[in-house]
Amino acid sequence: MMDTSTVISLAAVAIAFLGFILNSKKETKADAAARAVIQTKLDSLISVVNDIHSDLRAMRETVGDHTERLGKLELRIDSIEQALKERK
Questions:
Q1: pLDDT tens, residue by residue, 25-74
Q2: Can you tell me the distance from the alpha carbon of 11 to that of 67, in angstroms, rounded to the nearest whole number?
Q3: Terminal CA-CA length for the chain
Q4: Cα dihedral sign for 80, 85, 87, 88?
Q5: DSSP string, 1-34
Q6: CA–CA distances in Å: residue 22 to residues 9, 10, 13, 16, 29
């Protein structure tokens, strides 16, 4: 038969093993929660970046339209100035 010290040693090893397993599960749950928070924040950042990209694309189109209109106005001003010079 096993003596008392062997039984106590085996019981201590079993308790330590169970404690390790339970503690590692808690850490895993905490890690999963932290990962979920990080993923949520990353998703939010991606959404903001996509919105900025869309806004930038719209602003480029607007600037292009304004550039075209400004060019036409400059041509009209030049022709008006030429017509005024010819009348003098």
A1: 777 777 888 889 999 999 999 999 999 999 999 999 999 999 999 999 99
A2: 83
A3: 128
A4: positive
A5: ---HHHHHHHHHHHHHHHHHHHHHHHHHHHHHHH
A6: 20, 18, 14, 10, 11
